[in-house]
Fold:
Amino acid sequence: MKKKILICDDEEGIRESLKLILENDYDLIFAQNGDEAIKSMKSNPSDMTILDIKMPKKDGLETLKELKKISPESKVIIATGYKSVDIAHEAMKLGASDYVVKPFDREKIKTVIRKNS
Structure:
């Protein structure tokens, strides 16, 4: 059975890129913001979430805290366009498993997902 990955990013282009990279190997669920991701995790838990750190309203760190409350065993990979070690470090303290820097390298994102599966 394919693992289920929730992809939460406010940019449609990022969601589409990840869909093209991952759709053959994983069941994908998409959310445009933190609230959608939280609602999705409550109703249809995923094995892993790829979570954008910088989103309007509820940012990635706030969303990460909520997701870990709902499903502590689910892995969360933070996606950031900012090469900020501080943000990645903070996310790891809050329970993120790993992080990737946008724009995504196709093989890098696949490697990070496999490593955290």
User: Anything to note?
Assistant: The chain has a mean pLDDT of 94.
